[in-house]
């Protein structure tokens, strides 16, 4: 049985733990891993740029994709097996909607399981805005496994 597993990665510890778990699943059942990074352009730090939400002048989508590819390569090199079948996907994010990108790619690739980390939002904040993993688990057409890393602090900044 071919098992397609999608792992969204943002550089956080919980996402890395999700990749480790997905690698164990792949080794046990075979199949293909699909690693996804969703590019979110940085916000400019100068006063006018920060006020308008624009990107820095030196930012290009190509730079975002290169950084995403590098993040995926780095994460894979830490836990992946050279004999495993793996594909890297770097996608642009519709503003504030990474869950849509994850679910759309899962459908397009006929994914059987999405394995993703939880950023550990507090209960109150999670109720108000909801986490990406929570939203994906409610709308995905396939099994979604969310891993919570207890030592990750709520809102833990991605490791980059």
From TrEMBL:
What InterPro entries is this protein classified in?
Rossmann-like_a/b/a_fold (IPR014729), Universal_stress_UspA (IPR006015), UspA (IPR006016)
Tell me which Pfam families the record gives. Usp
- UspA domain segment(s): 1-146
Superkingdom of source = Bacteria
> What's this protein's family per the entry?
Belongs to the universal stress protein A family.
The identity of this protein, by name, is: TRAP-T-associated universal stress protein TeaD
Q: What is the lineage of its organism?
A: Bacteria, Pseudomonadati, Pseudomonadota, Gammaproteobacteria, Oceanospirillales
Q: Which gene encodes it?
A: teaD_1
């Amino acid at each position: 049985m071919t098992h397609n597993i999608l792992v969204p990665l943002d550089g956080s510890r919980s996402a890395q733990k999700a990749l480790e778990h997905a690698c164990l699943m792949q080794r046990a059942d075979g199949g293909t891993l699909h690693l996804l990074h969703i590019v979110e352009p940085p916000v400019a730090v100068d006063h006018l740029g920060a006020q308008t939400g624009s990107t820095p002048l030196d930012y290009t989508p190509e730079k975002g994709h290169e950084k995403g590819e590098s993040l995926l390569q780095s994460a894979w090199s830490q836990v992946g097996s050279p004999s495993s079948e793996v594909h890297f996907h770097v996608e642009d994010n519709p503003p504030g909607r990474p869950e849509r990108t994850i679910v759309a790619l899962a459908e397009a690739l006929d994914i059987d399981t999405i394995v993703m980390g939880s950023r550990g939002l507090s209960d109150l904040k999670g109720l108000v805005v909801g986490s990406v993993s929570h939203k994906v688990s409610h709308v995905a057409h396939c099994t979604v496994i969310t891993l919570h890393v207890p030592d990750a602090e709520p809102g833990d900044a991605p490791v980059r």
